[in-house]
Amino acid sequence: MAAPLLALDRVRKVYTRGRIVRRPTFTLEADLVIDAPAIIGVVGPNGAGKTTLFEMMTGSNVPSAGHVYVAGTDIHRVKYRERDRLAIHYHQSYQVRRFRKLVPSAFLQASPTAAPMVHLFDEPQFNLQDGYIGFMLDFFRKLRAEGRLVVLCLHPTASWHLEILAEISEQFLLVADGGVTRQPDFRTLVKEPRFRNYLGPEMTRHAESLAGPA
Amino acid sequence: MALIEAAGIHVRFGDRVVLESIDLAVPEGEFHGLMGPNGAGKTTFFNVLTGRVKPSRGSIRLDGRDVTGLSSHRIAAHGVARSFQIMTLFDEFSARENVTVGLPAFRARGFDMRHAAANDSGFARSAMEILATVGLADKADIRARDLSYGDRRALEIAVALAQGPRVLCLDEPTSGLGSDGVQRLAALVGRLKGKLTIVAIEHDMEFLFALADRISVIHWGQVVARGTPHELQQNEWVKRSNLGRFA
Question: Measured between alpha carbons, how far is A172 from A188 in angstroms, rounded to an integer?
Fold first, then answer.
């Protein structure tokens, strides 16, 4: 059987402060497996760790503990220049690949795939006027149809951002309170108190109307 | 077989990947539009197509011949002409002289022959024909610096046409033009359409949707959508946007 597209195996990231007495200032834990191609929406308040999560998935931020497997390969053990052949991180309209080179590339392994299997879109700039949204959403569908995993992080500030999330995402990851929880569909996500808290009352009402009657 | 065939074009500058993977096949005689948000990689792709940037991976074929990594003047010799976002005219030369300097037969004689050659009837006739094509026949003797902005744009295209290209690459041809200028340019491009293969980067969607045979939408260094203007306008989000107006 083929390896899952993405597996976060008891991943934990801790940022600390203080040189002698180290106090954790940020903790993120994730343990999940995504077997099949999908389009996954990622939501959560600012500072909850969405970008850290993306960085760990694409091999640019080493977890304090645990492993990230992309298509069965530990991405943090792949040669730096080849990590983008496993997973790509798009920040807005650019892709930046900066890796802290802790181990010489010669000691690392080659990427098993030529084209990236996981595509992470970190807050793509959507603009209702120019119509590119439609082309972007079609592109996500095309990648999924080609057997890739698409992860879309969106910070909903307008009601149509929720429409995009509801239309395109088959499932969700809610990043909040130091953890990552999986939500099987939009309706379940909207019932989640931490998501409602994050959206605020007005956006929550809009999300409920998109989710349909309970 | 397509006249232009780009396959898997990948360009990175250091840590930054500008083009992830671009595939584009343009058949002879097609007007192919390129659109996309700023920073999407359109101009970099043009630079690869015209030999100014060498791709890290991927290939460019022109009429079946691999021209990947050739210098810009060798690619130009294969029949690819380009007009730029920034004007590249000789301001002190007349419109006719600017076009004459672009003629390959003239260039073969060397630049020191300018004054004698510009009066040479053969060159003069070719230059006048080209100026007539772009609607500048009655302004042939006006210095480039004294032409209006719209006329300068037309002259730029005339200089590109002087090469006798098979492929004309236009980088934002309508930029800086008022609505009259855009209409004139649309009429000019309409006359050129079908006679040569045109690839144009353009932000003016009305212009592009009216003239292009097919459009590729570039984003994240990849072609995210491609089709005829009609096909692209079927998208529900496009209908909701300003692009929907041009249907």
Answer: 9
Confidence at A162, pLDDT banded by 50, 70, 90: very high
State how far the Cα of B113 lies from the Cα of B214, in Å rounded to an integer. 43
Alpha-carbon separation of residue B166 from B26, B27, B80, B192 (angstroms): 12, 11, 6, 11
- State how far the Cα of A68 lies from the Cα of A117, in Å rounded to an integer: 14
ipTM exceeding 0.85, yes/no: no
Distance (Å, whole) CA B34 – CA B97: 32
How does pLDDT run across B204-239, given as a tens digit for each residue? 888 999 999 999 999 988 999 999 999 998 888 888
- CB-based contact A93 B20, cutoff 8 Å: no
Q: Count how many Cα atoms sit within 13 Å of the Cα of residue A139 in the half-sphere of its side chain.
A: 22
A13 with A27: CB under 8 angstroms? yes
* DSSP-derived secondary structure for B88-117: ---TTSBHHHHHHHH-HHHHHH-GGGHHHH
pLDDT band at residue B146, thresholds of 50, 70 and 90? Answer: very high
Residue with tokens 């953890």: A179
Task: Report all structural domains of chain B as residue ranges with CATH numbers, in order of start.
Answer: 28-52+71-246 (3.40.50.300)
Cα–Cα distances in Å, from B12 out to A57, A94, A96, A145, B176? 21, 12, 10, 27, 30
Across A86-97, average pLDDT: 75
Q: Which amino acid is at A202?
A: E
pTM of the model: 0.85
| Cβ partners under 8 Å of residue B44, min gap 6 | B11, B18, B19, B53
Within 8 A of A131 by CB-CB distance, chain B residues are 235, 237-238, 240-244
CA distance A97 to chain B (A): 5
Per-residue pLDDT at A109: 87
> Which of B15, B220, B232 comes nearest A93 by C-beta?
B220
Judge whether B58 and B82 are in contact, CB under 8 Å: no
* C-alpha–C-alpha distance, residues A8 and B239, integer Å: 39
pLDDT single digits (tens) B150-193: 899 899 999 999 988 999 999 999 988 888 889 999 999 999 99
What lies within 8 Å, CB to CB, of A86 at 6+ separation is A59, A70, A71, A73, A75, A78, A111, A112, A113, A116, A117, A118
